[in-house]
Design goal:
Structural class: mainly alpha
Helix content: over 70%
Number of domains: 1
Shape: elongated
Number of strands: 0
Largest sheet: none
Radius of gyration: 14 Å
């Protein structure tokens, strides 16, 4: 993943965690949102996306990202 992907996933994970922590979502939906945000956080930190790997796509070069 390129740096834009990583930063975007990191920010999305923080926003989702903030919604659950400061909002009234402490039920099953909140659990799934926390799970999704943890997955985004791990992908943002490590730079590895299992979905990209499964479809055999490589976005490490930023010029390929915008084609």
């Amino acid at each position: 993943m390129n740096i834009m992907d990583r930063v975007t996933r990191f920010v999305i994970s923080l926003v989702l965690l903030g919604i659950v922590i400061f909002g009234p979502l402490w039920n099953l939906l909140g659990f799934f949102i926390v799970l999704l945000s943890v997955l985004f956080l791990i992908a943002g930190i490590t730079g590895f996306c299992p979905f990209y790997k499964s479809i055999n796509v490589d976005f490490t070069k930023s010029d390929e990202y915008f084609k």
